[in-house]
Amino acid sequence: MKIGNIDIKNNLILAPMAGISDVSFRELCKYFGAGLTITEMVSVKGLYYNSKNTLKLLETSKSEVPCAVQLFGHEPKIFESVIKSGVLDKFDIIDINMGCPAPKIVKNKDGSYLLKDLKLAREIIETCVRATNKPITVKFRKGYYENDDILIEFAKMCESAGASCITVHPRTKEQGYSGKIDIFDIKKVKDAVSIPVIGNGDVVDKESFKNMLISNCDGVMIGRGAVGNPEIFSILQDKKVDMSKKDIAKLHISILKKYFEEDYIVKIFKRHAMKYVEAKIGAVEKRKKIALAKTLFEIEQILFSEN
Ligand SMILES: Cc1cc2nc3c(=O)[nH]c(=O)nc-3n(C[C@H](O)[C@H](O)[C@H](O)COP(=O)(O)O)c2cc1C
Fold first, then answer.
1. Which atom of ligand 1 is nearest to 181's Cα?
2. What is the domain range of residue 87?
3. Where in the sequence numbering do the catalytic residues fall?
4. Residue 271 has what pLDDT?
5. Residues 215 and 199: beta-carbon distance below 8 Å
6. Ligand 1 centroid distance, CA of 205 (Å)
7. Taking the mean position of all CA atoms in its chain, how far away is CA 239?
8. Is the pLDDT of residue 281 over 90?
9. pLDDT category, 279, cuts 50, 70, 90?
10. Whole-model pTM?
11. CATH code for position 93
12. Residue nearest (by alpha carbon) to ligand 1 atom 30
């Protein structure tokens, strides 16, 4: 698959996930064969004001080739200024978040708010496209309100505004993550535009992956299905995985240690660790203990104990 002039090794893409897809998890998913990884969403305003915490989110791994960043915001001029500032120079692809349903994001007119304001969404895309030669991509949902369906209108708008690729998560903002997605929602978008379409939603194994391919999408983005399960990228390419869940968790920790201090690791790794606990007797108890753990050592003891 190609996004603009950028070659993507395979059609499997790790989803941007705030608090999950940090540089260590992206490196881990690359190790297991993800074709493309994208930073978690980064506030364009935070970059504009040189916020230290925001800038930290731009850290990337050498293995991330090509390299993609996801931005959120709603002011075209701020996008333009940040793109032209050079702070994103190491990235090959710039994605714009037009789907995040979190109340604090929507309240600021960012994320899925833009599904209600196509004029502004278009202005943002056009401004970004004018500001750089890099491909601009857009990730969006089916609409804002529960029964909205603006998929085709929005997809066509993205294409005519100059986006090089779109990612479609066919749930509305109000649906959040409830219910199942409809593959045919992705298919109808694919039929409506000529730019590559990445299908996203509920891919967790080979069966759901095959189901997603019915949409004829060019790429498949995997989010929750990769948490505690980064080897999904190998499995979907029929590559043998010789590591146990414990080995994978150990590898994850060793990568985390390359990038982060213990405090951050404890906070961030718990969500992964709970997913690494295998569904066996005692799993519920283990997960409860992980939630309460205060040090990485404690988490490791719980995760790697025999029972
Ligand atoms: C914890 C969490 C954080 C997320 N953060 C982002 C984000 O930063 N940017 C984004 O576009 N989507 C974000 N998403 C949405 C995912 O990228 C994806 O669209 C959604 O999880 C559906 O895909 P899945 O069923 O494969 O998980 C997030 C999802 C989760 C669960």
1. 25
2. 2-235
3. 100
4. 95
5. yes
6. 17
7. 23
8. no
9. confident
10. 0.97
11. 3.20.20.70
12. 17
